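Protein folding task:
====================
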Amino acid sequence: ASGQQPERLVSLGSGLRCYKCSDYTGRCENVQECTYEDSCISLHERGGKTVRQCTRYTDCDISRLTQMFPSISSFTYRCCNSNLCNSGSGVAVATPVVALMGSLLSACWSWM
């Protein structure tokens, strides 16, 4: 019987809870129960939208996030793994490659 208990725990999900929203206000009160994800993410578009949701920690990588959010060109993000940790407080991780690409594109536009 005790050998089945870990399986039951896995089937219930990670038990992690994250804020879930995608808007321009930066305020978020919706809470999502994560199923297979083991982290929360807070992603901020430069001058725009904020996305908060459950995610897999292995997806907390700039190259993966640019694939997951193709419509957001320049952003900062923060991944964490405790309940409701993506509320917006804390230090964000900048995406210098994306920021550099945005700067280069802006410079190209100004020359045209």
Observations:
- Residues 1-11, 90-109 have pLDDT under 50 and may be disordered.
- The domain at 12-107 is CATH 2.10.60.10 (CD59).
- The helical segments are 5-11, 62-68, 96-111.
- The longest strand covers residues 39-45.
